[in-house]
Amino acid sequence: MKTKEAIEYFGSIKNLAEALNIWPHNISRWGDTPPLSRQYEIEVKTNGKLKAEEKQ
User: Fold this and answer.
1) What is the largest CA-CA distance in the chain?
2) Is 8 within the bounds of a domain?
3) Which of 1, 14, 21, 39 is the least crowded, having the fewest Cβ atoms under 10 Å away?
């Protein structure tokens, strides 16, 4: 998944950060792709609507 997709799903960086229980500035450090561990966490929190992907 892309960071942008996760932000759009949750509605804002703040909402995504709250869902993951992290500070919003941590999300800005991800770049285009969240770390794989966060991707799995997002996949669970979105009930599979966003899928974790190995980096290519």
Assistant:
1) 28
2) yes
3) 21
Number of domains in the chain: 1
For helices 3-10 and 13-20, what crossing angle results, to 10°? 90
Find the domain containing 29 and state its range: 3-45
- For tokens 């009930």, name the residue: 47
Alpha helices in 1-56 (DSSP H): 3-10, 13-20, 24-28, 36-45
Q: What is the pLDDT of residues 2-44, one digit of tens each?
A: 999 999 999 999 999 999 999 999 999 999 999 999 999 999 9
Residue 55 lies in a domain: no
Record the pTM.
Answer: 0.91
Degrees to nearest 5, angle at CA 42 with 38 and 43: 115
Q: Considering the domain boundaries, does residue 56 fall inside one?
A: no
